[in-house]
From TrEMBL:
Domain EAL: 1-255
Organism: Actinoplanes auranticolor
Residues of the full protein shown: 475 to 729 of 735
Protein's name in the database: PAS domain S-box-containing protein/diguanylate cyclase (GGDEF)-like protein
Length: 255
């Protein structure tokens, strides 16, 4: 209960911040997108990770206003980069949605307003959802995904491989991107089973015309293997840790 009051105050007083982690093209190492990752600069407890407050926000309902803030701030920040940095012209921004936010009836209107108010192209926003969020109510989920896609935003399945989506469902899902969970990437340079698994997911992505993104790349060896497998893009400490908004133009100019 205390965290709810704190969180409402935190939203009012703008205590939440977004960090941005680069998503790179695995062939060229160019940054194509950044994933927005929320933190709470708590007045007493310091910088809190989403693991310390997202579940509570889901439970007490504040995830909807918090998620709306994340969405609006990420879109507004992309607009700032686009105004200030010529190299940001094609940059995309990824925003994570939570389960309750995905089920919220006002989501599509919130997304439309965030894009419209920021004045960014709809195609420069990618929404990340997890398999488990989709599987709870597949018919309703497909409807929401269609409505979001009709706005022109792109959709990614996050943490792919850790949930329980059947191939039959995957085929029906109107999504654009599969993000391969980092548990499969961890040993992809040393474990033949993981190579086979990632290879199969990339082939699946190609068959369904979805882009593939590998998460959690920390070593050159993992990068090289993923490139060889044909994975399109990647994200991880090797390419960049989550950093503040001011760190992003440097990622674009580095090329
Ligand atoms: O950034 P970090 O690795 O600490 O993120 C931890 C978890 O929190 C990840 O699963 C990530 O997807 C999730 N997360 C980060 N930012 C957001 C956000 O803005 N909204 C939601 N729903 N989840 C987020
Ligand atoms: O669930 P989601 O994929 O959105 O989670 C993103 C989380 O993964 C963020 O909290 C981010 O800090 C973390 N992350 C990003 N890159 C790496 C990495 O290379 N290694 C590890 N261990 N975590 C990472
Ligand atoms: Mn994510
Ligand atoms: Na993920």
């Amino acid at each position: 209960a205390q965290q709810r009051v704190d969180m409402e105050l935190g939203l009012e007083q703008e205590q939440f911040v977004l960090l941005y982690q680069p998503v790179v093209d695995l062939a060229t190492q160019r940054t194509t997108a950044v994933e927005a990752l929320v933190r709470w600069q708590h007045p007493e407890d310091g910088l809190l990770s989403p693991y310390q407050f997202i579940a509570t926000a889901e439970a007490n309902g504040l995830i909807v206003p918090l998620g709306r803030w994340v969405l609006r701030e990420a879109c507004a920040q992309l607009a700032r980069w686009r105004r200030e940095t010529p190299a940001a012209a094609g940059l995309k921004v990824n925003v994570n949605l939570s389960a309750r936010q995905f089920q919220y009836a006002g989501l599509v209107a919130d997304v439309a307003a965030a894009i419209g108010d920021a004045g960014i192209p709809a195609g420069s926003l990618t929404l990340e959802i997890t398999e488990s969020m989709l599987m709870e109510d597949i018919t309703g989920a497909i409807e929401t995904l269609r409505a979001l896609r009709a706005l022109g935003v792109r959709l990614a399945i996050d943490d792919f491989g850790t949930g329980y989506s059947s191939l039959n469902y995957l085929k029906q899902l109107p999504v654009d991107i599969i993000k391969i969970d980092r548990t499969f990437v961890e040993q992809v340079d040393t474990d033949a089973d993981d190579v086979a698994l990632v290879d199969a997911v990339v082939a699946l992505g190609q068959a369904l015309r979805l882009q593939t993104v590998a998460e959690g790349i920390e070593t050159e060896g993992q990068w090289m293997m993923l490139r060889q497998i044909g994975c399109d893009q990647g994200q991880g400490y090797l390419f960049g840790r989550p950093g503040d908004a001011a760190s992003v133009p440097g990622l674009l100019i580095r090329e």
